[in-house]
Each structure stands twice: as structure tokens, then as C-alpha cells.
Design goal:
By secondary structure, the chain is α/β, with parallel strands linked by helices. The chain contains 15 helices and 12 strands. The structure holds 1,3-dihydroxyacetonephosphate and iron/sulfur cluster (SF4).
Amino acid sequence: MDLIATDIFEEIKKLKVAKNAIILAHYYQEGDIQDVADYIGDSLGLSQQAAKTEADIIVFAGVHFMAETAKILCPQKKVLLPDLKAGCSLADSCPPIKFKKFKEENPNHLVISYINCTAEIKALTDIVCTSSNAVQIVNSLPKDQPIIFAPDKNLGRYVNKITGRNMLLWDGSCMVHEIFSAKKITQIKHAHPSAILVAHPECEESVLEMADFIGSTTALLNFVVKSNAKEFIVATESGILHEMAKRAPHKTFIPAPPNNNCACNDCPHMKLNTLEKLYACLKNETPEIIMDEVLRKQAEKSILKMLEISAQLGL
Ligand code: 13P
Ligand code: SF4
């Protein structure tokens, strides 16, 4: 790569116009990628944008299940992912063959799956949800409806608590959100007594119990911008701090500490994408997400159901 950073920004902008391309980026992407994107958001916002874009090419700066969701919704468009190896530990924690068996063992259950799963799991799902709408989607169903919730047990447990349901939970989790240490957060709270703890619902129960506010990445962002507090401990992937600092420059954001000394609140999958890879991917129009049409159609139903319920609820 022989372009310096400012040139890459300019080249990406030119390529976007020339190719009628749009860049969708998740808040967990590195700051440069967020800055060059046409839209940054959480998983719900990104899938809504993908569903309505008129661009010919979608460059998805996120992980594989997100780009795959965009392809499922936009089969005629070219969907590119800067690094095809950008996977997700949560999606990996739900293998389709095992999940199919689990579903067959509980035949009267409706299946709600968090969008952080593969197309094969979405094809076995009745309604997809994200962390923005999981509570509302569950609440939209009759109280006596038996439900399987997959793959994230932490989000599922949180939704059970809020809705008073007893959904059957698949035993999956996210490697990034499971690593936060409640003990170390307590120590930081002592050192910063006025700091507010905000947490993503993928965190473990011990962290969520301490949190002052729980929500999706977009909800956390909106909360810290509107709040009168000046200091926040942020228990989610570190990429969100970029937009928090941009939108609330006079506030202090402290990343929640992991239970060891690694940079574990960086998602290694999200961070496989770089500005250089994004540029190369837009220029060469590869790597591309390719999907089997039968699988795509099966997976599409559960995503469209989510978008339909979300639109009805004004989400
Ligand atoms: P949201 O985008 O719904 O906040 O989820 C976060 C996440 O883990 C995406 O991988
Ligand atoms: Fe998957 Fe967790 Fe990374 Fe999100 S943060 S992409 S859930 S591993």
C-alpha cells in the first residue's frame, strides 16, 4: 500500500462516487473507518440502512454475519467485506447441526435469534432480533408463548429478567463482553465515584447488575451524550469510544477493564478490518459475500419479520 492516510481517505471518497458504493460501519470498527463511512450504527441501524440503500455496492465494515445479513436483504447488490476472516465468537458458539437438534427437542417453541449468528441459524429462526429491539420483540409475543432464545445467553438472561419470561437459552456468548471484570470495575468506581457505568447486554450478569444503564451500542451512545454526568465507565467493545468522544468531547470515557492484562475489549474479529483493506476491497471489489439462494431465502424471512415488527413499533 503506497498511499498515505489522507490520500486513502480521498481515494475511498472518489471510488465511492465512481462506483455508486456505500460504506456501512459498525461502532466497533477502528476510528478511521468510522470517519470514512456513510453510515455508522448498531446492528439494527446497519441492517435497516442495508435494506433501504440504492447503492450498487455495499462495503460492510463489520463482521461476517453483518455483511451476510446485508446480502440476504439485498441479493442483487454486491456486498463486500474488507476481511472475509472477520468472524464472531458468538456466532461460532451456535453450530447449526447442534442447534437444529435443540430446536427439534423443543418443538412447541418459537425461535428468536440474536442477529449475531450465521445465515444457517437465521434459516432455523422465526424472528431475528438485535440488542436494540430484543425486549420489544419478546414483549410483542403472547405471554404464554414458549420461546428459544439463541445464541447469546447473557442477552437472553437480561431479556428474561426485563420481560418476566422464561425463555430457553442457548449457551453462547461473546468473547469480548465476557471478559470484563466486575472486581476491577468496582475498583475503578472507587477511584471515580461520580462515574456512571454503562454496559452492553452481552456482558455477564455480574457486570449488568452493577450497571447504571444497559443498552445497545446506539443506546449507550445516546445515553452518554444526553446524560448530565461527566465521566463514564464503558463496558463494551472499545471502538464505541471514538464516536462517544466525538459527540461528547468534554466528557471522559473510561474503558471497562478486562479480567487480565490483554487488550481484550478490542474485538479481534472487528479489528481485522483496516482502512487499507477497506480501500483495496472497494478498488478491487473483493472479497465479496456470495450466498446460496435457497439458504438466503430461508434466512431472509426471520430478518424481514424483525424489520417489520421494528417498523410497527417505531424502532
Ligand atoms: P449492537 O450493534 O446491537 O449494539 O451489538 C453489538 C455487537 O456485539 C455487534 O457485534
Ligand atoms: Fe462477535 Fe463479540 Fe466481536 Fe460483536 S464484539 S463481533 S459479538 S465477538
